[in-house]
Amino acid sequence: MLVAVVGPSGAGKDTLMAGARAALADDPRFRFVRRAITRPAEAGGEDHRALDRAGFAAERAAGGFALWWEAHGLLYGIPADLDARQASIANLSRGVLAEAAARFPLRVLEITAPPEVLAARLAARGREDAADVAARLARQVGLPPGLRVVRVLNDGPVEQGVARVVAALRGLNPG
Length: 175
What we know:
Elements: E1 2-6, H1 13-23, E2 30-32, E3 36-37, E4 49-50, H2 53-61, E5 65-71, E6 74-79, E7 87-91, H3 97-103, E8 106-112, H4 115-125, H5 130-138, E9 149-153, H6 158-170
Parallel strand pairs: 1-7, 1-8, 2-7, 3-4, 8-9
Antiparallel strand pairs: 3-6, 5-6
Helix pairs in contact: 1-6, 4-5
């Protein structure tokens, strides 16, 4: 089963996934997939496998990715070695969910927060001005119809959000 983690910018996906990864480290039913991204490793954000565009293209051509997509000027890939006996948990773009659902048993874990919380978190990052934050929040895209979705509200302390994600993942009954 592939568990696609999605949600708006500022929802805390990377933070909650890091906490869930630590909480479920000894549970063989779960695998947290490390994405390949054409972004330098030192750029921050999630732990990823950094590739340049040529390396990404070569790996894609060799069948190294189960799924891949382009967003925000970067290429993203999920490794092809997904194991059906595990819940493979990976951040995915909403734009690749229909393809993922056609190719794999798919569950979607949508992490979200109220708009005012998202706005405050994005502003705290200091990467965008208020107008850019408002524009980012306004362009949130819905999910394709027919997907099996579990929503986790991340509107409190990190520990609470991690506990909600872990409970949601365990509720999927993988393996």
